[in-house]
Amino acid sequence: MALVQENIFLGDCTANSVSRRPYYIQSKKSQYPTTLEEKNSILDESISLQNSSYTRNFVIEGSSILGTLLEHKNSDRWRYGSFMAETYSSKHTPRLDSILTDLDLNKISKVLLDALSIITEQITIQPPDIGEMKKESYRKDEIEWIEHNKGKLNKFSGKWICIEGKKLIASYRDMKKLMKFISKRKIKKPFVYFIPNEQDSEFIGAYIR
Amino acid sequence: MKSFHFKYSFSYRPLIKDYYPALIVGLNFNGTEADAMAIIDTGASCTLFQPGLATLLGINITSGIKKNMSTANGGDFSSYGHKIKIQIEDSEIEEIIHFPINNIPRNLIGRNILKHYKFALEEKYSQFHLSPEA
Prior knowledge:
Chain A is an alpha+beta fold and 209 residues long.
């Protein structure tokens, strides 16, 4: 067994999903949080981890990646918590050759071995090509604002909100009033988001008759 | 085993009650622009956006191509299609977006837009992956 490391950057696109994995590990069940409360309980942790650099450790046995562990330099807790219970099939490890250049058996830490002992199932997943992943998605700040304030959005039910960066700058029931605001502020390309009423949020898709 | 590679990977995004595979869609109609969030709806043949966005873009909704639509839970309504420039991450396409007269709670990206992309949903991991199709 060996350990290979690479540095990665977690932007908006991965931090949130990674944050669900600790729950998965801690519960030692093959399930992710399903209720809003469960998801919200890990949300704060998720936000704080975004846009940070991590070390990604690949645990390798022969030609297979047995697991990965994300390490955040400033957080021991996260070091334990972020272990991803994934095992990659040796059949599709296209990046394996490129990262198997500097094996160092001595780098396997107790933390990693502890983490390995709690793998509960084997999942076959194409390893993401992190090198090609975009670092930050478009409107990342606005999505982050929505995520931060998810529990409080009900107070805007039935309204259009306009978010710029990490700030809510307007909320109006009437789109034309919002347009006036946008025009006054000379915002060329606003990000607008409608908050449905509770009873409307169950709407399901439509099809052409 | 077939292997897929994607340019973008995203976590599901927060909407009111849950997390969904949703994209930030840049809309441009005759130079008027806005960004909105829309859910990927693989079961929808067309794309349906909230009428307020049409208003924001300066679109006269009823001047579009009329289609009669049904919802899976039995509701009927009319919507009007308009050709709009759409930007998703760094790709730009031009496609028809339908706007109903009455508001709908969320925007839905149907297969007429999805056909321009290769995408995969990992429901278990609440992640989706996307690449523009050349």
